[in-house]
Amino acid sequence: MNQTTTQKKKEKDNTLLYAGVFLLLGFGAYAYNNSNKKTTSDSAEGSIPNPDIEPIATTKPIAIYVTKVLKMGSQGLEVTKLQGLMKITADGFFGPQTEAMLFRLKGVKQVSLDQYGKLPNVNRNVYPAGTKLQSPLSAGTPIYDAVTKADGSYYSNQIVEKTVDYGQAVGTVRTSSELGNWYTIYYDTFWGQKIGFVKAADVQSYK
């Protein structure tokens, strides 16, 4: 091989080497630019947060305070809930309509949501004195103790003195409470007639 041929071969090899170097440099620059763009895009405003890195905002439930006393002028979610229980317009404001309905149903003018469910409904069908009562309950009607106060009226310690079976005579109405939820009655015992208390919801009249 003569000198001219050897020189041409060397020049050709050098050309290929330079081309390879340029290709490698070009690919490296392309990869760097794409990596930089991705990082910039991921950090741009409006990107989707990674739940493993960025906390996702959640809406906290609004608390309802069941022990809050609701009365004329009260407002809020608790009043809305109370109005819903009483089946009236639920506007979240405790006004005259809400007070009147509460008094009609429960006999009170202020109440908490917790108390509302525990208060008995007002008895609008109050039996007059002398009405004979019987038990309408399958489990029987309890008669509670009656204790005499200094002024001659009675109160109860909620002690069950006797339970009257279903369909049996309970006693005779003596008086009714102001709201009609309780009666004092005369009832028979082995030792004679006594005075006791019964819940209005636990008795019914009979002839």
Describe, in plain words, how this protein is organized in 3D:
The protein folds into three domains: 1-38; 62-119, Muramoyl-pentapeptide Carboxypeptidase, domain 1 (Orthogonal Bundle); 132-201, no CATH class. Helix content is 31%, strand content 20%. A five-stranded antiparallel β-sheet has the order 8-7-6-1-9, with no helix packed on it. It has a two-stranded antiparallel ribbon with strand order 2-5. The protein is elongated. With 207 residues, it is of the alpha+beta class. Strand 7 and strand 8 (192-199) form a beta hairpin. It has helices spanning 3-42, 77-85, 96-106, 113-116; strands at 132-134, 141-144, 147-148, 154-155, 160-164, 169-176, 182-189, 192-199, 204-205. Keywords: Membrane, Transmembrane, Transmembrane helix. The chain crosses the membrane at residues 15-32.
Secondary-structure blueprint of this entry?
Elements lengths: L2 H40 L34 H9 L10 H11 L6 H4 L15 E3 L6 E4 L2 E2 L5 E2 L4 E5 L4 E8 L5 E8 L2 E8 L4 E2 L2
Antiparallel strand pairs: 1-6, 1-9, 2-5, 3-4, 6-7, 7-8
Query: Tell me, what's the shape?
Result: elongated
Helix count equals 4
Oligomer: single chain
Runs in which pLDDT lies below 50 for 5 or more consecutive residues are 38-45
Class per helix and strand makeup = alpha+beta
Tell me what portion of residues adopts beta-strand conformation.
15-25%
Q: Number of folding domains?
A: 3
What is the CA-CA span between the terminal residues?
141 Å
Element string (H = helix, E = strand): HHHHEEEEEEEEE
Q: Any idea what the radius of gyration is? A: 43 Å
Describe this protein with a few key phrases:
single chain; 207 residues; alpha+beta; Muramoyl-pentapeptide Carboxypeptidase, domain 1; 3 domains; two-stranded antiparallel ribbon; 31% helix
